[in-house]
Structure formats: C-alpha cells, structure tokens
Design goal:
It is a single chain. The chain has 235 residues and is α/β, with parallel strands linked by helices. It has a single domain (29-230), classed as SGNH hydrolase (Rossmann fold, 3-Layer(aba) Sandwich). The protein is 38% helix and 14% strand. It has eight helices and seven strands; from the N terminus they run αβααβαβαβαββαβα. The strands form two sheets. It has a five-stranded parallel sheet, with helices on both faces. Strands 6-7 form a two-stranded antiparallel ribbon. α6 (137-150) links the parallel β4 (123-128) and β5.
Length: 235
C-alpha cells in the first residue's frame, strides 16, 4: 500500500472509531414534566436517571398542571425523547387551564397528553405524587391513573415508600443506601427513621421547604421519589 493509501486507511479507521465511541456514549433521553414536587427533587431525579443510564431533562412549573405545559410538549415533539414522564400534585386554582370539575379536567388532560405524543414512538409514563392530604389531590391522582390505564399508559406510584398504601406519613424507616439523619434534623424523630415530608404536608423537604429553594437538609422524600419515578425507565 502506498503512503497516501496508508494515510487514507488510518483516517477512515479514526473516523470509524469516533463514530463507534459516539454511539456507545449516547444514552436514552427522558423528559419529565411536573410542578414544584419535580423542581425540589430535580437533583435526585437526575442522579437516579443517570445511575440507570438515562439523560434526564426536567421541566417544572410551580402550581402547574399538564395543560400548563402542552405548548412546551408540542415544541419538544420535534425531537422526541425515548420516554416522557409527567407527575403533578393536582393543582387547581393556580393553573388557569384547569376549568370546571378538576377531576374531569385532569382526565381530559391525560387524553390530550396522549394525543400530543401519539405517532412519535415516545413511551409515556404517569407517576403519581406521594399521597397529599389536601384539597382534591388524591381524587385527581386516582382519576389520572384510571384514565392512563384506559389508554394503556404505565402508572407508577411515586410515593411507594413515602406514603405506602396511599396514606400520609411524616417519617419512614431509613432505607439501605440513603443517609439516616432524621433524628439529627428533628430530635422528635425516632432513631432509624427519616423525615420524608415538609411541614406543609405536600412537599418533601424536611422543615418548612415548599419546593422553591434548595432544601437545607437531606431530603429523604426527594431521594425516594426520584428513585420511584425513574424505576419505570428501562435499564
């Protein structure tokens, strides 16, 4: 082979190697749409997604509902990810697109969510937020789950080890792999347990956090919610 031929062969091999490496490094993408629960758990969700081999993009609107982000979803449809996850607490008065009976409104929003992504090949997953004993949240969660089941959309309980049995708990036993610091945050917490909810009984940051600021403490609730939410991602 001539000197020029050897150089061309080497260049082709280099390009082939770069392409192969790029293919190996590309990871499936998941886009997560939600409200303040998603926002306050953004670090944990990204960490859990990365540990499962996924790149996660999070889009959250405080006080939002699925309909709040429909325009964003329609834009994102141009470059569809492998998976789309939604998780909303069931806000009503703050989200102007939620009209009439909130339960029926959220049912209709699940249908529209499905319609937006139909034909893209994107897999949809509905993640229920941990049980929240305020307003119509749980009625909305169950209505969305029922509608998703009718549309054959997988449903994941994001509160499995936060609010087991869809009941409210302030603390839970520490889990393997997480920090166990509940008693350090609040002496009233029994040893071996972590605080999993905020004082407002909706959010997850221990203490007075409402999802708007970085949590000043270790948030076991966000750690668990992030793990549960990403459990639907294929390994």
């Amino acid at each position: 082979m001539s000197r020029l031929g050897r150089k061309l062969a080497a260049a082709i091999c280099s390009l082939t190697l770069v392409a192969a490496l790029a293919g190996c490094e590309s990871r499936p993408r998941v886009v997560v749409y939600g409200d303040s629960i998603i926002y306050e758990s953004r670090t944990e969700i990204r960490q859990w997604a990365a540990a499962r081999g996924w790149d996660a993009r999070l889009i959250a609107r405080f006080g939002g509902a699925p309909c709040t982000l429909f325009d964003q979803m329609k834009q994102d449809r141009a470059n569809p990810p492998e998976t789309v996850v939604i998780s909303f607490v069931g806000n009503t008065g703050v989200a102007p697109c939620v009209t009439g009976d909130p339960v029926e409104s959220y049912r209709a929003q699940i249908r529209e969510w499905k319609r937006i992504w139909t034909g893209t090949g994107t897999r949809l997953v509905l993640v229920l937020v941990p049980f929240t004993p305020v307003t119509t949240s749980e009625a909305v969660q169950q209505a969305m789950a029922q509608e998703a089941a009718l549309l054959r959309i997988p449903v994941v309980d994001g509160g499995t080890d936060i609010s087991p049995g869809r009941r409210y708990f302030w603390t839970q036993p520490c889990l393997r792999g997480e920090r166990c610091v509940g008693n350090q945050i609040n002496p009233a917490v029994a040893p071996g347990r972590n605080i999993v909810r905020a004082n407002d009984r909706t959010h997850l940051c221990p203490g007075g956090g409402h999802g708007t600021d970085p949590c000043p403490y270790y948030s076991s609730g966000s750690w668990r919610y992030g793990r549960n939410l990403t459990s639907a991602l294929a390994p």
